[in-house]
Amino acid sequence: DLRKQARQLENELDLKLVSFSKLCTSYSGTRDGRRDRYSSDTTPLLNGSSQDRMFETMAVEIEQLLGKLTGINDKMAEYTNSAGVPSLNAALMHTLQRHRDILQDYTHEFHKTKANFLAIRERENLLGSVRKDIESYKSGSGVNNRRTELFLKEHEHLRNSDRLIEETISIAMATKENMTSQRGMLKSIQSKMNTLANRFPAVNSLIQRINLRKRRDSLILGGVIGVCTILLLLYAFH
Asked: Transmembrane stretches, by residue range (predicted)?
């Protein structure tokens, strides 16, 4: 009885899968006929929405049949594992494996056809959207084209301004880095001079004495010159 039910479900699935495959092929042909509607006289009997609804309905029906056939196979497996059929166990296992293979083939064929249908529908929807955008662009008026050109020019101006600003910022950053480097060098020189001054205090005091002697000599020389000048003036007036 279980084998009879399985064969009946397998026959139904076979017919459904054939119709399902034809639906996928006709869907692709319908889309191609729409693209070539100006060069072909064939008119599809069903539009895309009707085919989509039929696809959904047939997919649900096939999934239900696959579920029923899976349940029948499970029941047959339980029967072969029961204790009442030891002598026919090998033949029953062979029959069960055959039905399982048929179920696996039908399941694989269903998922493959369904995936192909969904891929074709997605591709056609994408191509339809692209064609619609192209047609809307071609049907645009001269004002829209002029506006698009103005937008493109403005965009190019903004890009040029952005590039100039980036160049200016890069120059400023390079200048800042150079000034920072020079400040570091000056600090290093100053620190070295302070280190030398701290290491050689005698040299520092000698330099200070030399500076004081230079100032004293300058004062003496200035005083002598002043006195000589005064004497020359007094001699000139007398």
From this structure: 219-237
